[in-house]
Structure formats: structure tokens, C-alpha cells
Design goal:
mainly alpha
């Protein structure tokens, strides 16, 4: 059984950690392998882009490579974040048990683990064409700056939106830009940014009190009593921008009003999140946050359907 000090409050797979050798557990926790929600959220925009381009069936291998890259690079990002935030993490109840913060993994070992995960990302990068490679590498600047955003802006979630949506640009550069230009991909990317701001604001609800004590900023603190309305605005804007992407394809498949029904499942799911969100309940917020892996699936199915229609 996994010792209690190794378990952070939002761990999903305690059984997996229990199977791993004790020496490996801190590294799995450091890369958040126990919490797959993070790589699902990083993966979905890339999968959307491939589906939107109509290449999902033909380029199923690309979708799998994007999944591998999402797991590795999300893990690398978490390791880097924990290295930078180790002092802050010790002051926050939810994060003080993270491996670097509690000393279970040394700084030297954390940097080595980061490098190993980046090498996996490099393997994925080599599967892409030159333009997509350049787009992917450009994200490293945003990733490197993210841990510092909570110290200088009330909206680090917006910066996370830029980072966690980037796979959409990579996927579009690889599968869609040559045939359809960049505009549809940019609409998809912009919508994803607001989706990320919405769900990460929900996630930040768990840390509002601790963040206030240590001086960490977040959109949840900035919105205060207006959190539910702020999240609703972000989700609505995401749907609006994705609808704009659908409109770009209207000349290709016809201006059918039913086109917009493709996003109805996602819209209903977002509505459920907003209506049932309890900003005073961290467990409630965590459950709504995690449900976005399903929200990502509904958007994927919408773009998959659209992409297939565009190819007919």
C-alpha cells in the first residue's frame, strides 16, 4: 500500500502507485502519471486539429504520436514547474507533499528526469514535418515562462491557455494548414485558450485560501464571487470561436444550420459544469475540472464529424 505522505489530494490512481517499486513512485508523482487528466487536456486540442482537417482516419498514427507527446511533455512541464515552485509548494497544503518540495527527489535527479521526458518528446518531434516541428519548438518559450506567471499576473490561467492549447497549432500545421490555410486552426486554437482558462479557473478554486496566504495570484482569486460567471463567459467564448471555425468550412460542406448542432453536446456539458459548480467546495470543483476530459471528447467528435463531411 502506498504510504500516505506520497499521496497528494487529487491523485487518481493510487493502485498504480502501489504497484510501482518504492524508488519509482516519487518520479511517477513528479510527472503526474497518477493524474492522467493533465495529459488528456493537453492532448485534446492536437487531436481536434487532426480531426478538423479530415485526416483523423488517414493520420491515426499522428494522433497516437500526439498522445505520446502529450504524456511526455505534460510530465516534463510538471517536473519543471515543481523545480521552480518548490518553495511555494511547501507553503500550500495541496502541494507541500510533492516530491521535490518534500525532498523525496533531489534537484539534480529532477533535472535528469526532466531531460529523459524531453528526449521522449524529441522522438515525437522527429515524426513531424518541418513546419510542425518549428511550431512545436516555439512553445518552449511559453512553457518556460509559465511557472512565473502566477507571481506577476492575476491571470496565469490565460498563459496556461496559450501553452495547453499549443498542440492544436502543431496538429493543424501537420495535417490541415496545407489544404485549408491557417485561419481555421487559429480559430480552433483561440477557442481552446478560453476553454483552458475556464477549466483551470475551476481547478484554482481548491487553492484560493492558500494562494491568498502566500501571495500567489489566480483567475479564481481575481474573479472572487464572480467565478461562475467568469467560467461561463470563457466557455461561451470558446464555443463562439469554434463555431467561427465551423463557419469557415460552411462553403465546403454547405451552410447547414445543423452544422452548429455538432457542438451542442459540448455546450450542454459546459452548462452542467457552470450550473452545478460550487465555488465553496474544493471536491466539487475538482470533479468539474476532471470532467473536461469528457468535454474534450465531445469537441473531438464534433470536429471529427465536420472533417469527414468536408472530405466527402
Amino acid at each position: 500500500m502506498t504510504p500516505a505522505p506520497e499521496i497528494v489530494p487529487d491523485t487518481e490512481h493510487r493502485g498504480l502507485l502501489g504497484v510501482l517499486p518504492a524508488a519509482w513512485r516519487p518520479y511517477a508523482l513528479l510527472a503526474r502519471f497518477d493524474r492522467p487528466i493533465g495529459w488528456w487536456l493537453l492532448f485534446w486540442p492536437g487531436a481536434w486539429a487532426v480531426a478538423f482537417s479530415g485526416q483523423a482516419l488517414h493520420r491515426w498514427d499522428l494522433i497516437l504520436w500526439l498522445l505520446v507527446g502529450s504524456i511526455a511533455m505534460r510530465g516534463a512541464g510538471c517536473v519543471y514547474n515543481d523545480i521552480v515552485d518548490r518553495d511555494l509548494d511547501r507553503q500550500v497544503a495541496r502541494t507541500r507533499s510533492r516530491p521535490v518540495a518534500r525532498g523525496a527527489v533531489s534537484l539534480k535527479a529532477a533535472w535528469a528526469w526532466l531531460l529523459a521526458l524531453c528526449l521522449v518528446g524529441l522522438v515525437v518531434l522527429l515524426q513531424l514535418h518541418r513546419t510542425a516541428q518549428i511550431v512545436a519548438l516555439a512553445s518552449l518559450v511559453l512553457v518556460a515562462a509559465y511557472p512565473f506567471m502566477k507571481r506577476i499576473t492575476w491571470w496565469p490561467q490565460a498563459w496556461l491557455g496559450l501553452v495547453f492549447s499549443w498542440a492544436g497549432l502543431v496538429g493543424w500545421a501537420e495535417a490541415g494548414a496545407e489544404n485549408f490555410g491557417w485561419l481555421p486552426g487559429l480559430f480552433l486554437y483561440a477557442g481552446s485558450i478560453f476553454w483552458v482558462i475556464g477549466y483551470d479557473t475551476i481547478y484554482a478554486i481548491q487553492d484560493i485560501e492558500d494562494d491568498a496566504l502566500v501571495g500567489v495570484r489566480s483567475s479564481a482569486r481575481a474573479l472572487g464571487a464572480r467565478i461562475r460567471g467568469g467560467v461561463a463567459f470563457c466557455y461561451f467564448t470558446a464555443l463562439f470561436l469554434w463555431s467561427g471555425a465551423l463557419l469557415i468550412f460552411a462553403p465546403v460542406i454547405g451552410p447547414d444550420p445543423l452544422l452548429f448542432a455538432l457542438l451542442l453536446p459540448a455546450a450542454l456539458h459546459f452548462l452542467w459544469q457552470v450550473v452545478t459548480l460550487d465555488p465553496a467546495d474544493g471536491a466539487n470543483a475538482l470533479a468539474r475540472f476532471r470532467s473536461n476530459r469528457f468535454a474534450g471528447l465531445t469537441v473531438f467528435l464534433a470536429f471529427l464529424t465536420l472533417g469527414m463531411l468536408a472530405r466527402i
